[in-house]
Each structure stands twice: as C-alpha cells, then as structure tokens.
Specification:
The structure holds three protein chains of three kinds. Chain B is mainly α. In chain B, about 45% of the residues lie in helices and about 0% in strands. Chain C has a single domain (about 55-265), classed as 2-Layer Sandwich (Alpha-Beta Plaits), CATH 3.30.70. Chain C contains eight helices and 13 strands. The chains are: A mainly alpha, B mainly alpha, C alpha+beta.
Chain lengths: ~400, ~180, ~270
C-alpha cells in the first residue's frame, strides 16, 4: 500500500487519549518500588556488603511508594468505587487483573520483611517511648520483646527467604505492567515481547536512581555522613542497569525501523514528529546519552568525593526523568498513533481535572510525604550501636 | 516476662490466616449472584441488555396513525427509507399509543439538508444504479425553477416522483429497479 | 430519555431468576416475553418471537456492502438516537475514502458522518479518480481481544456470539478500549463505563434488525440469522462472491463481513 497517508485521519473514537498521565505514573511508581527492592535484596540475598547502609532505607522507600501506587489508578478509573472487583471477580486472561493479588501479596512480603529486619530496633524503641508511638511499636513488634540469638537466627532465615522470594515477586509486580502494554496487539508500538523486559529494567533504573538521589539529599541536608563505598556501588549498579535498559529500548525502536512491517512509516513518523521532543531529545539524548556519558566519566576518572556526590545526585535526577519520559512516550505516545494507521491525535492534559497536571504533581509528592511519615516510625539508617542484620 | 522466641511469627501467621479466610468469604459473598453461569461475567447483564428500551419501531409502527403517508411511501421510490430517520424515533413521538411530541419536518433548510444527504451529486460516490443524484443549483436551473426553491415544493417527499410529469425515464426505472 | 416500562412483572421475573440459577441445561432456554407494541410490528428476523431462544444454537452475521453505501449517514443518526450516544463518541460511523490519480488516498469522517456528507472535500486540489464510503461498527469478533483483557469480567461474549458490556460491573479502566483493533469502543462519559455497538442486541432478541440496518435505504447494511438458509446473509456468505473482514492479521475473527471491500481500507 503506497502513499497511504497524506491527510491526517484518526478514527472517531481515537481522537480522545484514554490513558492519561495517571496511567503513565502508575508504572513509574511501581517501578521505583521494584527497583528499590532490588537494591535492598542485593544486600540481603546476594550479600553485597557495601550496600548495607541503604539496605533498610531502600525497603522503607519501596514501602512508601507501594502505599501510594494505587492512587493514580483510582484517579483514572471511571468507577473507582468498584475497584474491589479486581479482587472479587478477576478475569484470569487479563494481565491487568493481576494487579489486585500481585500488589497485595507483594505488599505483604515487603511489609513482613521490613517488620522482621526492624524488629530489634523497634523492640528497643518500644521500651523507650511513650504514648501513641509506643502503641504503634507494640503493634509492629507484635507484642514480642524476645531478641534472643535463637529468635534472631530464625528471623534471619525468614528475612533471607522473604528477600529471595521478593525478587521474582518484584519482577512480576512490574513485569506484568509491561505485559499490560506488550499484550495489546492493536497498538503497534506497544505490542512487543520486549515490553515487560524494558519496563522491568527501567524500573530498576528508576528505583536505584531514586534511592541515590534521596540518600544524597537527605544526608546532605542533615549534614550527616554519606558512605562513599555504598554510593559508588549503587552508582555502579545504576550504570549497569541503564546501559542494559537503554540497549533494549533502542533495540525495540530499531527493530521497527529495520523490519519495516506494515505501516512502519507511520510508527516512524510518530517518533520523528509527535514524539520528537519527548523521545529523541528528552528520553534518548538528554536523559540517556548524557547520563551514560557522565557515568562513564565517574567510572574512569578519579573524582573528589564531594564532586562525586553531586554528580551521583545529578545523574540520578536525569535518570529519574529518563524513566518518566519513557513512560510518557510509551503510554501516551502509543495512543497518539490512531488505529486507522493514517493519522495522529494530540494529548492535551488539563490543569485541574481529576487526571490533570496539578493532580499528577500531587501524586508524585504523595510517596515522599509517606516516606517522611514512615521515617518517623522506622529509622532509616543503621546506628553503630545496633546489632545489624 | 519475656515472650517466647517465636511468638511474633505465630502471630504473623495467625493474622495472615485470618486475612485469607475473611478474604475468601468476602469474595464469595460479594461476587454477584448470576456470575459465572455462562462464563466469567454476570449473566444478568444479558437480561439488562435485552430489557433496554427499543426506541425505533420501524415503519410499521407509523402506519396505524399515518396511513396516507405510509401508503405513498410504500409504493413510491422512497419505500426503503425509514420514517424515523427524517422524523424521529417512535419513542420520542408516541408513548402508550398517544402522541407526546410533534415530529414534522417543516423548515426549508432542514428539508433540503435531508434530501441532499443522499441525492447530492457532487460527491461522485453514488452509483446511478443505487440512487439518482442531482447537483445543486444546476438541477434547479435545469428544471427552470427559482434558485431558492425547496425540494418539497416540487417533490412530494414521501413519493418523490408522484407529481413529477417529466421524467418518463425515471418512471420506467420504477418497474425495473427496487 | 423517556423510558418505556418494559420490565417483566414479578411472576415472570421470579421464573426467569429460577431459570438463571438453575442448571446449565435449563438456563440456555430463556423465554423473553415481548412488550405490547412489539407484537404489532412484523418481525424482521424470522423465528425469534414466540419460540424458546436457545442461545448456544444461535448464530448471526452482519454484512456491509461497500458498493451500495451512499454515505447518507442514516445509520449513524439512527444509532445515536436509539442509544442517546453522547457527542464525540461513536458506536458506528461511516468513512469516506477519496483516491486521486496518483493513488493517494484521503480519508475523513466528519462527526462520524452524523450530519452526512454535504459536498466534496475542499482541501483536495487534485482531480479525484474515485470515492467510496465504508461503514464501520463493532466487528463482534469470535475471539475478541477486548473480552480477553477486561480485568473484572465486565465485557463478555454471550453464548449467541454477541460481545456485550455489563455497565453495572465495568470499572472504567479503559483496557478494552485500548485492545480493540477497530476502535469500536469508547468510554461513555455519562455512565463512566465502556460502551460500544452491540448490534442492537435488545432489538435482535425481539425479532427486529439493528437500528442502523433498519435505517439504511440502500441495503448496504444487512443483518441475519445464519441458521436461516433463506436469509440474505446466509446466501451471501455461502455464495460465490468475495467476502472480507477488516484487519484479518489481528486474529480476532470478526463476525462482521464486508462485500466489495477495497484494499485501501484499514
């Protein structure tokens, strides 16, 4: 079919972009959960000692984001009051139905792991505090004050088990989100088996970057000590993940150009016209190529600690933006190409609507607020006098 | 007194078990009654759809009150048209056998717009066999009538060629097509 | 919208509830009583009224004949009025394809053809070689991708092959809208649930053809019972002519067939 397009024809029902920023935010938030959990598991399962300082913080970080993960979805649903149907009548053939049970089970695993790791700290805090917070600690330690070696040894085994089980679960938690897109044959830019892989890898990138950025920021603001060994290890893993993630993202895009399947020139036009700014300039150049280049500099040149900390934070910020842009390009970009294969629609997010820009900003800030509150209950950092796990 | 070494684990297991049991019971109770009879959906939904109000009642429903127009329509070239398209669905016009609203088409621009939706020649996409098309304002010039005439001034819309004397060729078509 | 009171009386409702809750074998026989006015209107699909409606044995087909479509848009108007479809959402629409002498194709569908096509396109400066119209609606796939992806079971395929939406169960996630290759679905802003063409299931069950089929003046849209060997659709599907479907490579196996489908149509 030659010369298919000359004028823009969008199917009448395709004019409206149904999956808005909220649907781009949901994988962003669960991605950070998965990524933060992976960092923690690198210490608890694979025994990478240098990551110990942030091993607990990353779990609390993951929990804060997990608690807020349902928020963008509830804001998007036409009937949020019926959301429990995901639990009551989940359709086994639908990837999205996995949401209810996977999310709940993973939440239980993460929360239990946190409780067990923190038990010594919380038990001590329970004994030394008064009032409401004491009650909270009593509940969290399940009324037990036994910190004998036998109890701790059992706890350790359970923690290892939960952390190990948690890795595939985190992969499923974010992999299924990728499959929600990858399983839609009607959209040519979504339908690829690489989608769950890309989503998972970018999740790891966003999680590690989030951890690094908040670690550097919190410690710098409070004037506390940053463990350079820990930071360098994190940056190393971040570099590994972003390189592999970038390769897969480019592979997916490149295979469209190379295979030239039907209507490929419309897909190409999507990337060269509608998404030129957000994809080529944003996702690829500013937020992938430049950070990878900077990461290379950090790896090959000896850099003073303070400068290293700054670049670690800066690169993490860029990579957080990379993942955000990637989610935008996939979720919203994919819908811009009409199923008529003859035209593009535009997405105009409104400012104050239920799925608008203002609400999106609030949704992004909510996990940080929850993190702040959780920080009052669960101390982020392992103090020297504590027996670390 | 210090609690036993595994009391917290026992309590966690108990809580999880309770959540599981309560969850399973809730799932059973909250699943809609007719769910799962034919498949993974609420069978009553089929009923809901079947009981939807029918709004268009076909030309047969217009005949009892509008015999003259119905008869003309049925014998003329417009026999395949739906009354309810130019006028309105039965549900908007009558309820329990009584008229609730007037649905006549009287405004000039509405009549012309309705006729030209089908008979406009300028789109080139309407084969002669299927429908006779005319181009405006050439048709009015050909017929030597005023250029602001409405189609219904010459054509009786329900039987469009009934009072037209000239198109013998068209009248011959009447026997062969439709 | 003025609602006609068509809910069955208590006795019949209890009877139907018994059937629904009964055995699978018992429940396939659903007797739907017709309302008062329907009885006076002759049936358009033979054999449905007055007989037991055995869902699993029913098979319907919808055939669109492109060569007869004149782009009047009566079908779109009838559909909008039958369901009070909110503006800017379309259960069915008609597309206009224009081809010039360089084989370039221009497609449009102004307001889904609700106002018809009033004249040629003013933005095409080149001489036009050919124009044709293509009605579009739900393809009522035999392997619907929309049903596959619904997370809560709010959209489903009935035993008689109709893909319907349970708007009391739909959570409005929009996954089915993404999954439909034909863009037949939309989110209804009034019910906040998904919506689409249902081939007028409520009419078919009472022996009437869909509203768009009833309105079409040229017979471009045809609907019928494939179990009736004398129906138009049976003869066309089992006859020698070429019958096509849209986006065959998607694998959805549509039950909506096209006659005279042109290669430019996607």
């Amino acid at each position: 079919m030659h010369n298919v397009l000359l004028t823009n024809y969008v199917f009448p029902n395709d004019m409206h972009v149904h999956w808005s920023m909220m649907i781009a935010l949901y994988p962003y938030i669960t991605g950070i959960v998965a990524g933060a959990f992976i960092i923690s598991s690198l210490y608890h399962v694979f025994g990478i000692e240098s990551l110990k300082p942030i091993s607990r913080f990353s779990l609390i970080f993951a929990l804060a984001f997990l608690i807020c993960a349902t928020l963008p979805l509830l804001l998007h649903l036409g009937h949020p009051e019926r959301n429990l149907y995901m639990f009551i009548t989940p359709n086994p053939s639908s990837a999205m139905a996995g949401f209810g049970y996977i999310y709940a089970t993973y939440g239980v695993v993460l929360f239990l792991e946190i409780l067990l790791i923190y038990r010594p700290v919380l038990t001590r805090l329970q004994a030394n505090t008064k009032g409401l917070i004491k009650l909270i600690y009593t509940v969290l330690t399940l009324g037990s004050d036994n910190l004998s070696p036998r109890a701790l040894a059992m706890d350790n085994k359970l923690i290892s088990f939960l952390a190990s089980v948690g890795i595939p679960m985190a992969c499923v938690l974010h992999g299924y989100v990728g499959f929600i897109f990858g399983g839609v044959k009607a959209h040519p830019t979504w339908s690829t088996p690489l989608m769950p892989v890309i989503f998972l890898l970018s999740a790891c990138v966003s999680g590690i970057a989030g951890i690094i950025l908040t670690y550097v920021l919190i410690k710098t603001i409070k004037g506390k000590y940053i463990d350079m060994d820990c930071l360098r290890t994190c940056v190393k893993y971040l570099a590994g993940f972003i390189i592999i993630d970038f390769v897969f993202e480019m592979l997916e895009m490149f295979s469209h150009y190379y295979l030239k399947t039907q209507n490929h020139h419309m897909v190409a036009k999507l990337w060269s016209d509608s998404l030129f700014n957000t994809f080529w300039i944003g996702q690829v150049f500013l937020f992938s190529v430049i950070p990878i280049f900077l990461l290379g500099c950090l790896a090959f040149f000896k850099i003073k600690d303070n400068l290293y900390k700054f670049f670690a934070g800066f690169i993490s910020l860029l990579l957080l933006l990379q993942v955000a842009f990637m989610r935008w390009n996939v979720v919203i970009g994919g819908q811009l190409l009409s199923k008529s294969s003859r035209g593009f629609t535009v997405y105009h997010p409104d400012m104050f609507g239920r799925e608008g820009i203002f609400v999106a900003i609030l949704v992004l800030c909510a996990p940080l607020l929850v993190l702040f509150i959780l920080g009052k209950i669960f101390p982020f950092w392992i103090e020297p006098e504590n027996k670390p796990i | 007194m210090q609690s036993s070494y595994n009391v917290h684990i026992k309590r966690i297991v108990l809580i999880l078990f309770i959540i599981l049991v309560v969850g399973l019971i809730a799932k059973q109770v909250l699943t809609p009654d007719s769910f799962g009879i034919y498949g993974h959906y609420r069978a009553d939904a089929i009923h809901d759809e079947v009981n939807r109000e029918i709004r268009h009642m076909t030309n047969a429903s217009c005949e009892p009150c509008h015999e003259y127009e119905s008869e003309n329509l049925a014998t003329g070239f417009h026999k395949k048209l739906s009354c309810e398209f130019c006028h309105a669905p039965n549900a908007d016009h009558a309820k329990n056998g009584k008229k609730i609203a007037v649905m006549s088409v009287t405004e000039k621009k509405n009549i012309n717009a309705l006729c030209l939706r089908c008979h406009n020649d300028s789109l080139w996409a309407r084969p002669e066999k299927i429908i006779k098309t005319v181009r405006m304002p050439e048709h009015l010039k050909d017929q030597e009538v005023r250029l602001n005439n409405v189609c219904s001034q010459c054509h009786y819309v329900h039987a469009p060629l009934k009072y037209i004397n000239r198109p013998e060729k068209a009248k011959k078509m009447q026997e062969t097509s439709l | 919208m003025k609602k006609k009171n068509q809910t069955p009386d208590l006795k019949r409702r209890a009877f139907m509830e018994k059937i629904l809750k009964g055995t699978i074998a018992g429940s396939v026989f659903l007797v739907i009583p017709a309302g008062p006015l329907i009885c006076k209107i002759p049936e358009q699909i033979k054999g449905i009224r007055g007989n037991k409606y055995e869902m699993t044995s029913k098979k319907f087909a919808f055939i669109v004949d492109i060569t007869s479509c004149i782009g009047c848009g009566s079908c779109c108007v009838a559909d909008k009025r039958e369901y009070n479809v909110p503006d800017h959402n379309y259960r069915t629409w008609v597309e206009r394809y224009i081809k010039d002498y360089d084989d370039k194709v221009y497609v449009d569908s102004p307001n889904g053809a609700l106002d018809g096509y009033h004249g040629p396109r003013k933005d095409i400066k080149k001489p036009i070689r050919d124009t044709f119209f293509v009605p579009k609606l739900c393809n009522m796939c035999k392997e619907p991708s929309c049903v596959q992806v619904c997370p809560v079971g709010a959209t489903f395929k009935t035993p008689d092959g109709f893909v319907l939406i349970d708007k009391k169960h739909c959570v409005g996630c929009g996954y089915c809208i993404q999954a439909c290759p034909y863009s037949a679905r939309f989110l209804n802003p009034e019910t906040n649930s998904a919506d689409k063409c249902t081939w007028c299931y409520h009419r078919v069950r009472k022996g009437l053809v869909p509203a768009c089929v009833n309105a079409c003046p040229t017979g471009a849209r045809q609907f019928g019972d494939l179990n009736d060997k004398n129906s138009n659709v049976f003869k066309k599907l089992n006859g020698p002519g070429v019958i096509s479907v849209l986006k065959k490579e998607m694998g959805n196996q549509p039950a909506l067939y096209y006659q005279g489908l042109r290669r430019e149509v996607i």
